[in-house]
Amino acid sequence: MKKILLSITVLTMAASVILVACSKKVEGVTDNISALNPANIDLAAGNWKTVLLTRPDTFAVAAPAATNSPAYVAELNEIKGAQSSLTDEQRSIIKYWSAGSVLRWNEILRDLVAKHNLPPYQNDDGSYPIPTAANPFNYPQYPFSNPPYAARAYAYVSAAQYDALVAAWHYKVQYNRPAPYSVDSSVNALVPKTALPSYPSEDAVLAGTMVAMMTMLFPTEISFIQQKVTEEENCRIWSGANVRSDIVAGEALGRQVASVFIARGKTDNVSKAVGTPAQWALFVTNALAAGNTPWYSLETPARNPMLPFFGNVKPFLFDSATVVALRPGPPPSATSDEMKKEIAQEKAYITNAPRENMRIVQFWADGVGTYTPPGHWNAIAANDFIAQNFSEVRWARNMALLNMSLMDAAIVCWNTKYYYFNPRPTQLDPSIKTLTGVPNFPSYISGHASFSGAAATILGHIIPANAASYTAMAQQASDSRMLSGIHFLIDCSTGLQVGQSVGGYGVKRAQADGAE
Amino acid sequence: MSKRILKHIVLTCTVLLVLGNAVLHAQTDEDAIMMAKKQFCIGGMYGYGSWKNYWEGTLKRNNLNLGTVSNQMFGFMGTYGVTEKLNLLVNLPYVTTKATAGTLHGQHGLQDASLWVKWLPLEKDLGNGTFSAYLIGGFSFPTTNYIADYLPLSIGLHSTNLSGRLLLDYQVGRFFTTVSGTYVYRNNITIDRPAYYTTEQINSNKVDMPDVATEQLRIGYRSSYLIAEAIATNMNTLGGFDIRRNDMPFPSNKMNATTVGVNVKYTLKKVAGLSFIGGGGYTVAGRNVGQSTMFNAGVFYILDFNHSEKKSDRATKK
Fold first, then answer.
1. Interface contact B191, partner A, CB < 8 A
2. ipTM of the assembly?
């Protein structure tokens, strides 16, 4: 018995050593990056061209108290009090946000998209419940942040944050109130010092914009985002970078600018994007009347098509007539010899697929429960922007350019998908088993290819040194959809071209917004 | 004394397909049987498991876009008696998966090799029977670059595991009871995508694989030619998260399963060293796993590297 006890002890100790020695906590790629310390603070950004605001001073920001006023001194005392007893947790919050506010809000938005990107479970009668903004907490929660929904969410948040920061920069220069650590040397700077005036706080502007946009985009997350807002705003005070009046003015400005975007969102046609059963049936009727093979859902029970009228949503970079102009010509008939060849090619791709093809498919899949392809391109952009040391306002501008391009690519792509209503490979040959889930919308043109063409084009303009690698990534993302058996070559090659054209509008805007 | 010798010359190798994906247990590492010195038992196993219902978190459901998910396992196993009290075990399965509905492509490939060291530090007469205690250590690793992040059709989870097991056995006459507890340390895995969502967005291709604890009870009849036993196994993942409503499963889900089953092994009298096994099991409760029904069958043969005297020793026990 002694032997057993000894052995158990040895075993337990060995196990403990293993557990202690190998910490399994996974670290995210941006968890421990250093504080943003921009090479250029872009003081002239108050003159950059805004997206929706007609003027940077559309919303008035009152003049701040002078730095020698009793009110300001009291605010300095709040910082000093906080700094005298900072906890480790507070320091880690400072470190987290100091990496960049646009970056962190973008990451948080990607988190929300992934969290809400789940297709509703069917009703007992085989129909599917539609999430409703009027009752967001009921299952299925609103929204179902599928790729077009997500593209629009990223675009609205990014564009609103950009406009809000342009306005903030305008007032920063106008009032020119220095940061607390510059006013009072006994205030510690726990983030890199900057010559950028601190009123109104850019962090609070972004926070206010984000929480206001949530009322439209992710209503169930307002409370979660409000916690993050409070955290960010407090940490700017703890770090000595802002006094409370910088924060209050910033959040108010952010919320006001967001209201302009929310007003646009109410009338941009997204509310009609789901359609009705009668409208869904009409797609089939029209395709049959034109002698085409209509798309049908490959899910059981058949699911209503994803946002069939998203193609009528109002774009950011061009008008609705341009959407129609950008729509490509028709794909070959599903019964043509050309398509027969493509079907055979798809069958070949999925038969004994090499592991490397599987890797490419999974890397770009961005399907259910993920931040979607637009989110993936946001992650790619963010990771590259970190290395560029952009100012917050330039970060916001570049994210807005990327996400407006992605949203407009989604609009043209969805417009095309439902204009032609073309079937997926597996519909034409059920023996084509796919290497990732088949999205529940028509095949022509590929969403991934459209998104990726647009993203690579605008990102290649923003960071020309990376242009070739973005192009290669877009090509691979596009190819991944063929390799997985869910898209034809014609869907992908045409999608890439359409995406590139949309991205070209992003580039045109970038060249004319005063930031270059 | 003869009871102990009996135990040394019989062997069970069975398969338990616990999860939606195939997880293989060579039960030689879960039973109270040792190979005699310089004897090498080799065998081939076939296992089949399938499920139609699964637990999405704690909610039991089916999925019309998967239909019935099945996996087949073809395994090679070997056990070598270094001494009477120390055995080495190896096994390597080839696994295929398939879904009867929906569009997802099945997978196939060589899965994880495992190596076990089984030590019998204590064996003594107690009351009317014999009590024995075993310490068993295992190491398993993926032999190919198969895809883990493709559940429920991936062939495995691709983690490298270290297992520690304490197994106690008590046999009275030909009836026995075996209990064991296992702790499995699982290494983090790397997946093909750069980010994924658990209960939050993780911007990394590394996945923290929670450890697993398993308890098992086996009760049955054991003689030199026939073993028949009932088996109950309870597996708990120590951490991990639930599949969200209508989401896909993920390798680091909290996969729990309680299974019950039976296992029979018959050793031929006419052909020394040749035995056949068969068994079945059913998942009675679970979390983030399929409700599997499992069957297995196998054939084993003992190669004896001892001199003839040892062989005659065996013959005397018939």
1. yes
2. 0.94
